[in-house]
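Supplementary Note 3. Input sequence used for the single-chain structure prediction.
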Amino acid sequence: MSRILVVEDEQHLAEGLRFNLEAEGYQVRVVDTGEAALEVLRPESPPFDVVILDVMLPGVDGFDVMAEMRHRGQFVPTLMLTARGHPDDVLRGFAAGADDYLAKPFELAILIARISGLLRRREWLRASMNPVTEPLAGPPPETDETFTFGDKSMYFDRLELHVREQVFPLTLMEANVLRYLIRHEGKPVSRKAMLEEVWGLHEDTDTRAIDNFIVRLRRYIEDDPTHPRHLLTVRGVGYRFVAAAQA
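The predicted structure, written as discrete structure tokens, is reproduced below.
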């Protein structure tokens, strides 16, 4: 039975989610603060399969909870749930490490569908509950969802980037950004195009949010992130991915 953590301070909504999710066959735990969420999400605690995380929480808000989870190396699939629907808030949630985002009010059927989608990635991410620096016994077999460049391999079906003897678990959004850049290898890609094609955001949005994802990806991919050789900046435009490292 899949375990779901609901972090929601509106009691009527939290209990409604508990009732409906339990009716779907899930085991549900509800907490109402960010501090309580971080307490039950400690690495030594029994893991959850999905987290439903409200943004507007008393004390530590959902963005900070999300960022702290990823900082700890906890990559449990997470759906951020909030009344905020502005694109900048959506991007802030993704930049913090969220896998999906749903604005209130929402239809229950849509929420259930989003959870099902996250659970389909559960097995890919289960091994990512530990720090990213663990050595590998050996790389997984290559598939059509694998892209290899130099001594690095990106396994999109597992959301894992393998760099020599290390594995870096990526969030879904990090993987989607990298996939988009790889598909346009060698070509300058604008920040605006990435917002529209990766996130489907067509409103006037601060495109600098993309930079947060590039910074994180460079930490994984580049030998020296301050002097990138794969994820290159195209001044005044955006970024360009090159598989053969640039000198």
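The chain has two domains: 3-126, 132-241. The chain is about 35% helix and 20% strand.
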